[in-house]
Each structure stands twice: as C-alpha cells, then as structure tokens.
Amino acid sequence: MVATPAWPPKSLPRLYVEQRLEAGASLIVEGTYLGAVLRLGPGDRVKLFDDATGEWLAAIVEAGKKRATLTVIERLREREAVPDLWLLFAPVKRGRIDWLVEKATELGVHRLQPVTTQRTIVERMNLERLRAHAIEAAEQCERTALPLIAEPLKLGAVLNDWPRDRALWFADEAGGEALRPEPGPAAILIGPEGGFTDEERAAIRALPQARAISLGPRILRADTAALAAVALWMARAGDWE
Ligand code: SAM
C-alpha cells in the first residue's frame, strides 16, 4: 500500500512572525523572502509560528517584491513544552557565538544567558544578531518556541541570585563528576576560552545547587563544551526520549 503523505508536507517554508496567530487572521510579512526569493504566489502554503500559540498553516494572498500578505488557515500544532534548561556561557567571538546560539536552539535550550567572567575577552555582544540566529534555527528545526536570549550578567550577580530550585551543572575543565541529571529545572555553565579563575571556581563550587562536571579528558573549546553538555542533559533529562 502506498503511504499517504503527511499534510501539509514537511518541506513547506516555515516562518516565525511577531504577530499573535489565530484562524482567519491576516498578516503581512515584510521582506523579499516569500515573493522574490522563494517565488511563492497566491494560494501557496506556508507554516507560521509566533512563539505563543503554536504552529499554523497559512496561505499567501499576495506576494510582492517587498512584502507578502497571508491569511491563517488552521493550527497544526500547539506550542511545545520546552525542557527547562538554561545555558550560561561566557561570550566567545563572533562566528563561534553565532554557532553556539544556533546549535543550542536546535538542541532545545530554554534560555541562553551570557555571563561575563574575569577572563572573558569578548565584552560586547549584539543580542539582536543572536536573536536572528535563534529565529533562523527555530524555523529550520521545527521549534514552535524561541529560546530566550538574556542580557549579559556578571558571574557574581548570577551566583548571588541563583534560584534555589535550579541545579547548576558547572563544566570544570579541572575535573568533576559525570553529568547525570535528575528531573527538574537546571542550567549548564561553561567558562570562557581562558577558563575560570580559581577564585571563580571556588565561588561556583560554594553554591549548594552547583555540581562540577567533567566532559572527558580532553579540553574542549567553550562552544564545543556547551553543546556537548547540553546534548548530555537533553538525552538524560530533556525531551529526547
Ligand atoms: N582553561 C583552559 C585553557 O585555557 O587551557 C580551557 C578552558 S575551555 C577552552 C572553556 C570552558 O569549556 C571551560 O571553562 C569549561 O567550562 C569547558 N570545558 C572544556 N573542556 C572541558 C572538560 N573536559 N570538562 C569540563 N569542562 C570543560
């Protein structure tokens, strides 16, 4: 028997929109993507998500060179339940940080929190650019929720205000236990390219919610370490089962 193709086909273009979606709503998508780049026209279908109400099927009413008008048809999926994992990382340079945001979004992280440490080299970050990378990654990986990209905080402030019920898995290149998370709110903390200072390491370890973890015998780049730890957590306590 011939399998019935799923409708709508998975390959439909998928877009994040700021406007809250509902059946029958009409909306305008600015930019050249739908009309000039994909060459879509009236009647063509796309999928939309708004980070609030899930994923929707929509039809193009008109697609011009600069914008397209769409009408929302029906909801395809509810907004996903995002595993409650934060990723705290010391900013790394452009290119690497874009990669980190893209991959953390694909892996399902809930919140991305840049943290400045004593050895942080990159001080300035363009959060708008990072958000654009997160949106693009969410569009292609079928997420219906965007990760939150928080304003950078100093490590001391992060530790002072640490939530009582959130486990903090701190990746320590000097050694620690294997990451074996229990269910519940959690965060992973990755150091800068130059590593944590001994003073910072002691301050983190003093937090009752913090547990130092090892990511193996090799010293990983900060972005590799972040993704390795997120993957381990997702496989054991996230939504990969
Ligand atoms: N201090 C080191 C140095 O400069 O040679 C390297 C720091 S490493 C590039 C950046 C961060 O990745 C570390 O602070 C740590 O959070 C994480 N990391 C890298 N390899 C790790 C490992 N094998 N175990 C645990 N964490 C690791």
Quickly count the helices: 6
What portion of residues is helical? 25-40%
Task: Count the E strands.
Answer: 12
Cα-atom radius of gyration: 21 Å
Low-confidence stretches: none
What ligands can be seen in this structure? S-adenosylmethionine
What fraction of residues sit in β-strands?
25-35%
Shape: elongated
Explain the layout of strands and helices.
Layout: E1 14-16, E2 26-30, H1 33-37, E3 45-49, E4 55-63, E5 67-77, E6 85-89, H2 96-107, E7 111-116, H3 127-141, E8 148-149, E9 153-154, H4 155-160, E10 167-171, E11 186-190, H5 198-206, E12 210-213, H6 222-237
Parallel strand pairs: 1-3, 6-7, 6-11, 7-8, 7-9, 10-11, 10-12
Antiparallel strand pairs: 2-5, 3-4, 4-5
Helix pairs in contact: 2-3, 2-6
The chain binds S-adenosylmethionine (SAM).
The site of S-adenosylmethionine (SAM) has 18 residues, from helix 6.
